[in-house]
Design goal:
single chain, 5-stranded mixed sheet, two-stranded antiparallel sheet, 7 strands, 59% helix
Length: 718
């Protein structure tokens, strides 16, 4: 049977006196422009390729799908291109050529609708943007805010100023809040309790999520005590600050070691109280690994809220197994606090813009304020928030949407200021201390700029954007030097995804695509702006906030590839093929990341770090047997070990165990037995000590790490 064409439809309309059932399906207004192709694909097409017409007859059998060769070939070429950048020999020219071909093919596949992502693009209604403000609690909050500023004059946390601070926050939240959070869920919970009945839905999707969570937790906590094995001077500084907290010195900003925000020290003190881990490397590790795990739900929610559940799950698994976020968590420093508060800030901000819910803007403000207490690179996030809202306003020109966005930005800003108020007050009172670290990197305060600021910035930007697939920097503490920051599969998907989002933005002008694109370099600015020390860029710690958009882009790209595979076959076959493809990619990604963390990173770290743990064990054994903590020393030697760490490893109160030649004579007044640890190359000081203690016994401690041996000199009892 011949189907009518569009021409038949036009003729039918011209001959209006004849009643026909010919019509063209309407375009749903709820769909975004870039979703039109998805909608039209679902509408049955006439054999001639025109728009389908409803004649009230049965639909023709489905047409066989085309094999997504462009998508698959592009993916394979990108994987080959990225594999050519694996150390030790990187074939950059060949890789660039293959990447260009792969990106071209992938964009072609997007143009022809082979590659595409199904996304949730609902926006708020006209009346959703209108809210009432409760002025009485809001004014009370402003009064409490003014009192809080005065109460923090001594720059320390105390019972009274914390009460005023929390009162200010609570009043402002009540003034702005739209609905009481969790009210509906709480009512449902109470009904279940009263009925005494519980219903738990368990399906294959739930099982998959549980499996993903188990894999992620394994990667994050496996061999936590051993990887990495040693502390550095930064750890000594942090543990001294934690000790200050435990001793009741509740500073808003800790000035030791050029100044540090306070969150990690209170967080670690809490970990010590809960897990009874004392002042130790493990306490720092547990705190930061927990912080790294808390990032993950928000990455899933971002993918699910703005695209689909599979994007959320793919982003979750890839970020969970990746060595970049794993390493910066395991090393026990403040690095994961940057993405920890960036993830909820972006999630609640973007959801607030999408749904028009005031409560989301409040939560975004709380996350922003807390983030400012965490890690100094986070200071770029409030600026990014403003940029995102401006992009939203410029792209969605409906007045009610623009009004809602600007209102939400104001709410987030006020809430963030109150949460960060103690720190802001300190920054205003002590700008030189607060900004010192940043100023030394962006200006000539500590070192003259090695060239034109603009030229250095552009070169740093290029190097930062290449770090995912080429070179992640030279710092062994929190990276594997001179290799890509991502594994082969993740890096290939990232660069393909970045190009695809760029294409989608230029075609459809979707504000969310542009937000993801600019968030990557923007969240790396703390590293890119290292103008005085360009050799410190890229750095995986100062770029850590970019983890969120990077892994979302990876998931978006892979979801489109899997969708192309699904559409190539009808029904279950396509779904199984897509699942197996994802499983294979995750397996190889996990295997490489496992080797990178537990083999390569561990090896490089052990070779670079001092062996203070073994020195601490020797002193601990000396204390437990014949000596005391006051009769042991480490003879100072240039560029050797931080002797404060030796005391921490020996499980004694933090002290500097170093002793220098001019102070050797002071040890004569200390009762024997005595213990000296000496560098194997320090024969001069060994000779002096042998002169002072002729009966001393000297032995070589053979380290488990080649080249890390040291001398142990034991002075027996008189």
């Amino acid at each position: 049977m011949n189907e009518p064409s569009v021409l038949d439809f036009v003729k039918a309309k011209l001959k209006f006196w004849r009643k026909t059932e010919l019509r063209i399906p309407a375009y749903p207004e709820s769909l975004a422009p870039h979703q039109l192709d998805d909608y039209l694909e679902e509408v049955p097409l006439a054999s001639g390729g025109g728009i389908s017409i409803d004649l009230g007859i049965s639909k023709p059998p489905p047409v066989a799908r085309r094999f997504p060769w462009k998508t698959l070939i592009a993916s394979l070429l990108a994987l080959v291109a990225q594999s050519l950048l694996e150390p030790p020999v990187q074939h950059k020219d060949a890789s660039l050529g293959l990447y260009l071909v792969a990106i071209g093919l992938m964009i072609w596949s997007a143009i022809t609708q082979e590659w595409k992502v199904v996304e949730d693009d609902k926006t708020i209604s006209e009346d959703k943007a209108k809210h009432n403000i409760r002025w009485q609690p809001l004014i009370a909050g402003m009064v409490f805010t003014a009192v809080t500023v005065t109460a923090f004059a001594n720059d320390t946390f105390g019972f009274i100023n914390i009460v005023f601070w929390l009162a200010a926050l609570v009043c402002v939240v009540i003034g702005f809040i739209d609905t009481i959070p969790f009210k509906v869920k709480f009512s449902s919970l109470m009904q279940c309790i009263k009925k005494g009945s519980w219903q738990v839905n368990f399906n294959w999707g739930t099982l998959l999520v549980i499996l993903v969570v188990i894999i992620i937790i394994f990667f994050r906590i496996y061999q936590l005590n051993a990887v990495p094995p040693e502390m550095t001077s930064d750890h000594a500084e942090k543990l001294q600050d934690v000790q200050d907290v435990l001793d009741g010195q509740w500073h808003v900003f800790f000035t030791r070691n050029t100044g540090r925000e306070a969150f990690q020290f209170y967080w670690t003190a809490l970990v010590i109280k809960i897990f009874n881990t004392d002042i130790s490397f493990l306490s720092l590790k547990i705190g930061m690994v927990l912080a790294g795990l808390l990032i993950l739900p928000y990455i899933y929610l971002l993918g699910k809220e703005f695209f689909n559940k599979r994007v959320g799950l793919l982003a979750l698994i890839f970020v969970g197994i990746a060595f970049w976020p794993n390493i910066i968590s395991r090393v026990g420093l403040r690095f994961p606090l940057y993405p920890l508060f960036t993830a909820p800030a972006l999630y609640y901000l973007l959801r607030g813009l999408k749904r028009g819910t005031r409560n989301d803007f409040i939560w975004a403000g709380i996350a922003i304020g807390l983030g400012l207490h965490g890690y100094s690179p986070y200071r770029v996030v409030p600026i990014l928030v403003v940029v995102i809202v401006m992009l939203y306003v410029l792209h969605l020109r409906k007045p009610h949407l623009q009004e809602n966005a600007l209102t939400g930005l104001t709410i987030s800003g006020i809430t963030a200021v109150i949460v960060a108020l103690p720190l802001i007050r300190y920054a205003v009172a002590h700008p030189d201390v607060f900004n010192y670290r940043f100023a030394t990197r962006v200006s000539s305060l500590e070192r003259e700029l090695p060239g034109s600021p603009l030229a250095i910035f552009l070169d740093n930007l290029k190097n930062a954007m290449l770090m995912f697939g080429v070179n992640d920097g030279s710092t062994w503490l929190h990276s594997i030097p001179y290799r890509p920051a991502l594994d082969v599969i993740s890096a290939a998907l990232f660069y393909l995804g970045f190009a695809l989002l760029l294409y989608r933005y230029f075609r459809f002008r979707n504000w969310l695509d542009l937000t993801l694109l600019i968030s990557v370099p923007f969240l790396m600015l703390p590293s890119i702006l290292s103008l005085a020390f360009p050799e410190e860029n890229p750095a995986l710690n100062r770029t850590a906030g970019a983890i969120i958009p990077v892994f979302l882009i990876i998931a978006i790209c892979l979801d489109g590839i899997l969708s192309a595979i699904e559409r190539a076959s009808q029904g279950k076959t396509g779904r199984v093929a897509a699942f197996l493809t994802a499983a294979v990619l995750v397996f190889f990604s996990a295997r490489q990341n496992y080797n990178l963390v537990f083999d390569e990173y561990l090896r490089i770290y052990r070779e670079a770090a001092g062996n203070t743990s073994e020195m601490g064990q020797v002193i601990r054994g000396f204390i437990d047997s014949v000596g005391s903590a006051d009769s042991a020393w480490v003879v100072g030697y240039p560029y050797w070990v931080d002797t404060r760490l030796v005391s921490i490893q020996a499980e004694v109160p933090i002290r500097d165990y170093a002793i220098w030649p001019q102070d050797f004579n002071t040890t004569l007044n200390v009762p024997s037995p005595k213990l000296f640890i000496i560098n194997t190359e320090d024969m001069e000081d060994l000779t002096v000590l042998k002169t002072l203690y002729p009966s001393a016994m000297v032995s070589t401690y053979t380290s488990s790490i080649p080249g890390r041996d040291f001398l142990v000199m034991l002075v027996p009892s008189d």
